[in-house]
Structures are given as structure tokens and as C-alpha cells.
Design a protein that fits this description.
This protein has 6 helices and 8 strands; from the N terminus they run ββββββββαααααα. With about 170 residues, it is α+β, with helices and mostly antiparallel strands. The protein has a 4-stranded antiparallel beta sheet with strand order 1-8-3-6. The protein has a 4-stranded antiparallel beta sheet with strand order 2-7-4-5. A hairpin with a 5-residue loop joins strand 4 and strand 5. Helix 2 packs antiparallel against helix 3. It is globular.
Length: about 170
């Protein structure tokens, strides 16, 4: 299935299929009770989502939205879970997928634990280059989304990006 920038793959609170991202990028956005959206994750090629449903089903934690044109395969949950029950190799595959995502999230936590805002932005830009490059982070994410990922206000992100360009 082909998703174009801005199209939703699934919505927060719904239940349904699992998905394999073949190419492109997705963002996972949670909507707070007051209606404000908050970017919580970026999904990169070869990830299976939702991560929290790889072993047992659960409603979608957020809404998945294409950041760029993306190719996604729908995976039948019934078939996935049946293969998981019957195959040790499939269980190992899931363990490796979750390990890979955990390692990626550990790097994201490192971004948040930096004290100086410039260091938070630098860590995020490095992570982005490693996992998403070669596009610049500002070509894919808004300043508000960058700020949400590293716990900074949009204005601070704007100031830091302007200082980098000088």
C-alpha cells in the first residue's frame, strides 16, 4: 500500500492489522485529552508496527502518519500471532525487532537527557542522520515536531537552527 505525505495509516485507539514499513517514514502522534497532538515516535524502513502489538494485540497507541511517500505492507494479525505460536524462529525475529527498537529508543533517551538545548538538538540531528538521512531534519519535521522529540519549545529550536546556519 502506498501512503502519501500526510496520509494516516491507522488512528489512535483503533485496533487492526500489523504493518511493515518497506520505504519512507512515518510519525506516530498521540492526541492529548485537550486535542493537542504530540509526536512520540518516528518509524523507519523495515520496522514492524505497532511495536506494542508484536507479541499480543492491543489498540493503536497513536496515529501513524506518512512524513514522506511511504510503502507499507499490511500483515494479518491472525497469521502473525499463529506463526509466532508455532515457530521459534518467528519468536526470535520478534525479539530481534524489539531489541533493535529498544536500542534506537535508548539513543532517543540520550537526546532527552542532555542538559544544554544545543546538545539535545545535536544528538537528535545525529540520530536522524544515522537512521533517516540524507535529508536534513528540517526537510522532514517541523520545528514544533523537533521540539516535541527533544523537550524544547519551537522558539528554542528556531533559535538553535538559526545559530547553526550562521
Amino acid at each position: 500500500m502506498l501512503l502519501h505525505k500526510g496520509e494516516a495509516l491507522f488512528h489512535q485507539g483503533e485496533s487492526g492489522s500489523l504493518f511493515h514499513l518497506r520505504s519512507g517514514l512515518l510519525k506516530i502522534v498521540r492526541v492529548h485529552e485537550d486535542g493537542s497532538p504530540f509526536l512520540v515516535n518516528i518509524i523507519v524502513p523495515d520496522e514492524m508496527i505497532p511495536h506494542h502489538s508484536l507479541i499480543s494485540p492491543m489498540p493503536y497507541h497513536g496515529t501513524a502518519i506518512a512524513l514522506v511517500t511511504s510503502e507499507v505492507d499490511m500483515v494479518s494479525p491472525q497469521q502473525w500471532y499463529e506463526e509466532l505460536r508455532q515457530s521459534a524462529e518467528k519468536s526470535r525475529e520478534v525479539a530481534l525487532l524489539l531489541q533493535s527498537k529498544l536500542r534506537m529508543m535508548q539513543q532517543r533517551i540520550d537526546q532527552l537527557t542532555q542538559v544544554a538545548p544545543v546538545d539535545k538538538l545535536g544528538k537528535l540531528q545525529g540520530w536522524f542522520a544515522d537512521y533517516i538521512g540524507p535529508a536534513a531534519i528540517t526537510d522532514v519535521l517541523t520545528q514544533d515536531e523537533i521540539g516535541q522529540l527533544i523537550g524544547l519549545r519551537r522558539e528554542t529550536v528556531n533559535r538553535l537552527l538559526r545559530a547553526q546556519s550562521k
